[in-house]
Amino acid sequence: MSTTQSERLREILEPLVTSKDLDLEEITVTPAGKRRVLRIVVDSDEGVLLDTCAELSREISDRLDADDAMGQGEYVLEVTSPGADRPLTEHRHYVRATGRLVKFQLAEGGELTARILTLDSDGLDLEVPGVKGRRPTARRLAFEEIAKARVEIEFNRKSNSAAGATGAGDAEAEEA
């Protein structure tokens, strides 16, 4: 996709996306046979509902048809939220990942897997899980020390805050 088309699409789409209180994360156009796929990735601090994606997709489709920004060729429009394995690249991504387990590739080499507790403009306060029964340890990681970061999927994490709030529900689920 040419820079001109990319800039033009962003110029057209950003106001539609922000009007829904969403962030425009990514725009890609890829060939798919005789057609192209226009993929628009949106996100927010609260996540993105399917209904919101559908509504935004209709608005974007109408706007692109009226503007002819995609030219005359056929294309498929996809409006989606980022997947769970999306890299953390912006400060807002780290904010949204607070409380989550993240795998960091360190700039000096090596890896670190830790839970984000808090963050500020300079870096992250982390809880590094203990190994073989040892207690977790605290660590501060500056943003410039991070080469790459990605949320780790946890299927059976026991949350301290959720345990007290859902204790009765857990008992009912066990009895059922």
In short:
By secondary structure, the protein is α+β, with helices and mostly antiparallel strands. Helices cover 31% and strands 33% of the residues.
Give a verbal description of the structure.
There is one protein chain. The chain is α+β, with helices and mostly antiparallel strands. It is 31% helix and 33% strand. The chain has five helices and eight strands; from the N terminus they run H-E-E-H-E-H-E-E-E-E-E-H-H. The chain has helices at residues 3-18, 50-67, 91-96, 160-165, 167-175; strands at residues 23-32, 35-43, 75-80, 101-106, 111-119, 123-128, 137-142, 146-151. A five-stranded antiparallel sheet has the order 7-6-5-4-8, with no helix packed on it. Strands 1-2-3 form a three-stranded mixed sheet. Strand 1 (23-32) and strand 2 (35-43) form a beta hairpin. Helix 1 crosses helix 2. It is elongated. The termini are far apart. Residues 161-176 have low confidence and may be disordered.
Cα shape = elongated
Helix content: 25-40%
Averaged pLDDT:
84
- Which runs of at least 5 residues are low in confidence (pLDDT < 50)? 161-176
Strand content: 25-35%
Class by alpha and beta content: alpha+beta
Number of strands: 8
Strand line-up across the major sheet: 7-6-5-4-8
- Give the ordered list of helices and strands: HEEHEHEEEEEHH
Radius of gyration: 21 Å
Total number of helices: 5
N- to C-terminal distance = 54 Å
What about the largest sheet?
5 strands, antiparallel
